UniProtKB/TrEMBL annotation:
Belongs to the immunoglobulin superfamily. Its main location: other. GO terms for molecular function: cell-cell adhesion mediator activity; integrin binding; protein heterodimerization activity; protein homodimerization activity. The lineage of its organism: Eukaryota, Metazoa, Chordata, Craniata, Vertebrata. It holds the Pfam family Ig_3. Residues 6-101 form the Ig-like domain. It comes from the Eukaryota. Keywords: Cell junction, Cell membrane, Disulfide bond, Immunoglobulin domain, Membrane, Signal, Tight junction, Transmembrane, Transmembrane helix. The gene is Jam3_0. Coiled coil: none annotated. This is JAM3 protein. InterPro entries: Ig-like_dom, Ig-like_dom_sf, Ig-like_fold, Ig_sub, Ig_sub2, JAM-C.
Length: 101
């Protein structure tokens, strides 16, 4: 079963140095969806070491739960975030949401 449009929660504004938690979830898809996050339409790698653009960011991305946590946000983390839920039957994307740091 193709995933439904996931429900994404992105904080609107986060002070520099604080923790920011972004969530993405849908429960119609079967088999269970995995989640990937994008900032300004660029994929955010689950492995921070592989992605030069995000090397200064300290974050944890869990593709199974759809949770993206920035441990200490900085100005460079400002942007439009969106999430895609994917399974064998297809994928669905939530609307971009702005997060300002």
């Amino acid at each position: 079963v193709k995933p439904m449009t996931p429900r994404c929660t992105v904080p609107k504004a986060v002070p520099v140095g604080k923790t920011a938690s972004l969530h993405c979830h849908e429960n119609e898809g079967y088999p269970k969806s995995t989640y990937s996050w994008y900032r300004n339409s660029e994929p955010i790698s689950p492995d921070t070491k592989l992605n030069a653009r995000f090397q200064n960011s300290s974050y944890t991305l869990n593709p199974t739960t759809g949770t993206l946590v920035f441990h200490a946000v900085h100005k460079g983390d400002t942007g439009r975030y969106s999430c895609i839920a994917t399974n064998d039957a297809g994928f669905a994307k939530c609307e971009d949401q702005e997060m300002e740091v």
